[in-house]
Amino acid sequence: WAIIRGSGDLATDVLTHPESYLYFITLVLIALNCIALWFLGVAANRFLKNRSLAMAVQLAPWLIFQVVNFMPIVASEAIIVFASLAIVSGLLLHEMQENRRQFWLVWVAFFSALMVATKISTVVMLILPFLFFAKNKQRITFAFLTLVLVVLFVLPVWEKLSNFTGFLAKMATHTGQYGTGDAKLFDAAIYLRSLGQMMTKEWTFALHV
C-alpha cells in the first residue's frame, strides 16, 4: 500500500494509515485460518474415510469461544490457531502416508516452531505431537527441528531477546497478570480463581472434555 500510494517510507505510511494495514492483515489472517480449516477437513476425510466424521473434526475448533474470538483479530493467537490446525492436519497425514512421513514430520516441526516463536506459553502444547510419534528417532528429530526452527524464527529480534527473558523471569517469580503482582512463585487463590474462570468462559470445551 505504501508503494501504491507513492509513499517512500513504509513506517511513516503505517503510522499515517494504520486502519488500512490492520484491515489487510485481518483479511490475511481470516484467509489463512479458512485455508487451514479446509486442509484439516481434507486430511481428516482421507484419514477417517468418513465425510461426516471429517466434518465433525473440521467443526470441532468452533466449540472453543476463544478460537472464534481470536481468529479475525490481529494478535498472536490468530497465528496460534492457524499453526495448531496445520499441526493436527500434518499428524493425520503422517499417520496415513507411510512413504511421506519424513515430510509431514518436518511439516509438524515447522508449524510447532512457528507457534512457539509466536507465543512462548504454547511450548506445553508440543507434548501432544511429541508423544504422537511412535519411535524415539522421530521424537528426537521433531524436537531438534523444532528447536532449530524456533531459533531461525526469532533470529531477526535476537538482539532484543534479553528484554524478553527478563519479562519471563518476572512472570515466573511474581504473581498477577504478566508478573505485576507480589514476588511469589505460586498463589493458590489466583490459580483456583483462574481455573474456575477458564472452565466457565469455555464451558462448551469443558463440557466436551
Describe what you observe in this structure.
- The protein has helices at 10-16, 18-48, 51-59, 65-70, 76-96, 101-118, 127-132, 136-154, 161-173, 188-201, 203-208.
- The model has no long low-confidence stretch (mean pLDDT 82).
- The N and C termini lie far apart (45 Å).
- Helix 2 (18-48) runs antiparallel to helix 3, helix 2 packs parallel to helix 5 (76-96) and helix 5 (76-96) runs antiparallel to helix 6 (101-118).
- By secondary structure, the chain is an all-alpha fold.
Quick rundown:
The chain has helices spanning 10-16, 18-48, 51-59, 65-70, 76-96, 101-118, 127-132, 136-154, 161-173, 188-201, 203-208. The chain is mainly alpha-helical.
Mean pLDDT reading:
82
Shape: globular
Largest sheet: none
What is the oligomeric state here? Answer: single chain
Number of strands: 0
State the end-to-end distance. Answer: 45 Å
Helix and strand arrangement:
Elements: H1 10-16, H2 18-48, H3 51-59, H4 65-70, H5 76-96, H6 101-118, H7 127-132, H8 136-154, H9 161-173, H10 188-201, H11 203-208
Helix pairs in contact: 2-3, 2-5, 5-6, 6-8
Characteristic terms for this protein:
single chain; 209 residues; mainly alpha; globular
